[in-house]
Model the fold of this input.
Amino acid sequence: MRGMTQTITNTKRITQPASVPPVGAFAHVQNEDGTGYLKHDAFQYCRERFGKSPGDWRQILFVHPAGEGLNVAAFLARFETQMGHENLSECGPTNNGLVSWIKPAEFWTRNSMRKSLFTLLLRAAIGHDQGGAKSIPYDPKKDNFEESLYSMSYLKRTKTAVELFLTGHTWAKTHKDAGWVDTLENKAEPEVKKLIYLKPVTDKALLKFAAEQLGCATVEGLTKKYRAHRDKEKREQREKAKEKPVEAAVESKTVTKK
Done:
């Protein structure tokens, strides 16, 4: 099953809600005890409100149709592996067949834009579109990843941004509460690239790359190589500076003899 590399582990327990939360709803997990019992906040249906709320994002709950928890995990893994991620989100069942627990990879929790997209992906996996309308759910056997992804209206309207995100444009230049759709829908690629962009290269990463290209085992080795090259250039410059007065004197004598 392509993309099914996400961790699917033990069943965890939650307190059964007094009323069944709507499909597509979310809840923050407050804490987990040693027996796998999850204490959680109230379920919220509004994605944006959930993404901006101060709850803990280390583990969340997601409501889906019965029997579709594995499809959610497979779809999310498919998206993350296509991005080239090695540290994947973890998903698993609870004692409520309509609710799965999810531990988003830390990557997703670092800004509101990523959180917003993450909740969209969870809903896209089950074919739950804007206002509860139906899009095409993900079927791991068919591996209809792109069909499911872009049949959701929100993701279709931000297709350019999603495609760029999948190729590494994951850093956002927006205000802290920015949402995925409001910021990026129906924008052309040049405009999108001003809002989400490739990860900036750190000085450390750049030095490491340079060291590898120049055959140095470590950054320290590169530093030594650079200093040796710099010292060699300085010695050569000093030697040339010494030669110039001699050359000038020889030229002066030659002119005098003539």
The first helix runs from residue 47 to 52.
